[in-house]
Amino acid sequence: MEDSTPAIIFEGIEKSFGSLKVLQGISGEIHRGEVVAIIGSSGCGKSTLLRCFNRLETINDGRLVVNGIDLSRPKLNQKQLRRLRAQVGMVFQQFNLFPHLSVLENLMLAPRLVLGKSGSQIEEQARFYLEKVGLVEKAKAYPEQLSGGQKQRVAIARSLCMNPQIMLFDEPTSALDPELVGEVLVVMQQLAEEGMTMVVVTHEMQFARDVAHRVFFMDRGCVAEQGSARAVLTQPKSDRLRTFLSRMNFAENLSN
After folding, report:
1. DSSP β-bridge partners for residue 29
2. Average pLDDT, the chain
3. What gap in Å lies between CA 5 and CA 120, rounded to an integer?
4. Are 208 and 37 in contact (CB under 8 A)?
5. In this model, does residue 149 exceed pLDDT 80?
6. CA–CA distances in Å: residue 61 to residues 52, 72, 242, 255
7. Based on the number of CB atoms within 10 Å of its own CB, is 173 exposed (0-12), middle (13-18) or buried (19 or more)?
8. What is the pLDDT of residue 85?
9. What confidence tier does 73 reach under pLDDT thresholds 50, 70, 90?
10. How far apart are CA 144 and CA 246, in angstroms?
11. What per-residue confidence (pLDDT) applies to 3?
């Protein structure tokens, strides 16, 4: 029987850094197999919200459950944290590859240390995911020998090697030259089509409109608008969202 429980449930979550309140009582849920794009201006809290979903940040108040793991608690034991890290993959802006390890070694490290898999087993899996992102020929290369787009595709493959049930993407194309953005978005679109549960913080409005099921528009630590991707991005209800889309050069697409 298919699990109908949402992959992520968050109710009234708050997060502050000192006196700065970054998340102000946000509620929502993300369903299994769904792609949700989180958009908004810099400093609105979208990356902080994403980082709460895999316990890189702890919430100050509210309820947060990710893949059945209650992250509302102040502390998680090592078993719970290890389970969370295995089930929830994350891809960052800056790739975070180990420069002294080859591409293949980067992919094999976490499955060996976290999941306790053997060498031959994880190498076969690593090569499979490198093939998936179109980089199997770079298995022996080192990060410094790759373009930014190739590094990000390796980072995606590395997360997939943990067989995650949820993938989080924190502005995965923001550090890339414009001509390299497309190759990363193609891989992400393929994952979406295969049914991966994905939460994507992004400034790529076209990707959000065409690939995401729903969009959250965040403003000043709150979800100001949410709904189907096409409705939110082509029929914005608030002046704030219209202004944001205009700044993102997406205003000309509002009637499409």
Report:
1. 9
2. 91
3. 35
4. yes
5. yes
6. 12, 7, 31, 40
7. buried
8. 86
9. confident
10. 37
11. 65
Q: 234: how many CB neighbours lie within 10 A of its CB?
A: 15
Using alpha carbons only, give the angle 239, 16, 240 rounded to the nearest 5 degrees.
5
With a CB cutoff of 8 Å and minimum separation 6, the contacts of 94 are 175
| Cβ 108 vs Cβ 129: under 8 Å | no
Q: Which two tokens stand for residue 202?
A: 């992004």
Amino acid identity of 248?
A: M
CA separation for the pair 185, 202 (Å, rounded): 11
Residues forming a β-bridge with 224: none
Rounded to two decimals, the pTM is 0.92
| Strand, helix or coil for residue 188 | helix
**Tokens 């219209």 correspond to what residue?**
242
Tokens 């895999």 locate to 54
pLDDT tens digits for 165-180? 999 999 999 888 888 8
How many residues does this entry show for the chain?
256
Give the pLDDT score at 1: 41
